[in-house]
């Protein structure tokens, strides 16, 4: 018997469930957090993980959530934080005053020297990337 | 003084990101979430090429490389 299309839900694949994907992302993040900046290992690791996610995201193997066809005008509210960030990042970058007027990444560098904070940053980056892949 | 200004400016922008996202997630809100904005950008295609998808993936990969590998 045929069911109406809107009543059918595709069963998520095993690896697409949070109980699988979250531990995998945690493991990848813990490894990434051990790799120091400017090391060959860190570059190769981010090339591999990022490249793998891009490959998955450009294939049609992962089910995607529906995207909005158009954005309402209230979406312009997003320009407020983007503009504030852009003004400060642009000003600090152009003035190139080092620690006296630091860019965002210069401020983040000391925080990311700690392995646990680095792993947390890895987890945030990978989780957001996984979210993008499924969009 | 200038250092405090930079830290304050970036902190304000992060708080603003959180506020707009919070407003977007409220019941009945018309503001799209950041994920919806990204999904909309990723819909953009030129012919068969998913330019929006490639662009956003590339930007996110570069961001990770910039902060975590160098």
Automatic annotation (TrEMBL), chain A:
Organism: Micromonospora marina
UniProt protein name: Uncharacterized protein
Top-rank taxon, per record: Bacteria
Keywords: Membrane, Transmembrane, Transmembrane helix
Transmembrane regions: 44-62, 74-96, 116-133
Automatic annotation (TrEMBL), chain B:
Source species of the chain: Micromonospora marina
A Pfam family this chain is assigned to: DUF6186
Domain of life: Bacteria
UniProt keywords, alphabetically: Membrane, Transmembrane, Transmembrane helix
Protein name (record): Uncharacterized protein
InterPro entries xref list: DUF6186
Transmembrane segment boundaries: 47-68
């Amino acid at each position: 018997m045929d069911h109406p299309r809107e009543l059918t839900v595709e069963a998520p694949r095993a690896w697409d469930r949070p109980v699988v994907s979250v531990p995998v992302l945690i493991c990848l993040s813990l490894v990434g957090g051990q790799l120091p900046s400017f090391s060959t290992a860190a570059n190769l690791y981010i090339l591999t993980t990022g490249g793998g996610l891009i490959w998955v995201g450009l294939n049609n193997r992962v089910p995607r959530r529906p995207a909005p066809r158009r954005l309402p005008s209230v979406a312009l509210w997003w320009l407020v934080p983007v503009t504030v960030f852009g003004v400060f990042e642009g000003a600090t970058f152009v003035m190139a005053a080092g620690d006296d007027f630091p860019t965002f990444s210069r401020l983040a560098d000391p925080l990311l020297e700690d392995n646990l904070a680095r792993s947390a940053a890895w987890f945030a980056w990978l989780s957001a990337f996984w979210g993008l892949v499924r969009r | 003084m200038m250092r405090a200004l930079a830290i304050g400016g970036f902190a304000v922008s992060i708080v603003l990101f959180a506020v707009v996202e919070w407003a977007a997630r409220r019941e009945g809100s018309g503001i799209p979430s950041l994920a919806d904005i990204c999904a909309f950008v990723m819909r953009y295609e030129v012919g068969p090429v998913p330019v929006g998808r490639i662009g956003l993936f590339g930007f996110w990969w570069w961001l990770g490389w910039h902060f975590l590998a160098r």
